[in-house]
């Protein structure tokens, strides 16, 4: 995995676009909490801090989910001051796997509606 170049010594490693693998993306999105995070990011034009997500899991589990998403190439995490911001790597995912993200997000929305989830 090639570390991202950032001016901060707190830069987090991310896979380069050419290193993102379909299996890793699908694995990352196979967990309901991680899919929920991605759905929230997809629905918001801005980057979101980890604390903006209301997940029914512990902080350490939340940290794990964000790490899996980052290491798979689904999200990008950067520090701005003391805040860790999360953004969906939509451009990278759409270029590598055209239509995949939209299909998964659409399927997740239909499932949520079918099951009566928010």
UniProtKB/TrEMBL annotation:
Key words of the record: DNA-binding, Transcription, Transcription regulation
HTH arsR-type domain residues: 14-108
Keyword Transcription tagged: yes
Cell membrane is among the record's keywords: no
Short name of any one Pfam family annotated for the protein: HTH_20
Entry-linked SUPFAM superfamilies: Winged helix' DNA-binding domain
Molecular-function GO terms, alphabetical: DNA binding; DNA-binding transcription factor activity
Protein name: Transcriptional regulator
Natural source organism: Streptomyces fumanus
């Amino acid at each position: 995995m090639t570390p991202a170049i950032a001016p901060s010594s707190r830069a987090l490693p991310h896979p380069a676009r050419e290193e993102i693998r379909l299996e890793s993306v699908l694995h990352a999105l196979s967990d309901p909490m991680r899919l929920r995070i991605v759905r929230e990011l997809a629905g918001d034009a801005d980057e979101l801090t980890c604390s903006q997500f209301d997940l029914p899991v512990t902080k350490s589990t939340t940290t794990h989910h964000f790490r899996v998403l980052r290491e798979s190439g689904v999200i990008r995490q950067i520090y701005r001051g003391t805040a860790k911001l999360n953004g969906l790597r939509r451009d990278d995912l759409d270029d590598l796997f055209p239509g995949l993200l939209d299909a998964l997000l659409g399927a997740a929305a239909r499932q949520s509606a079918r099951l009566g989830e928010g």
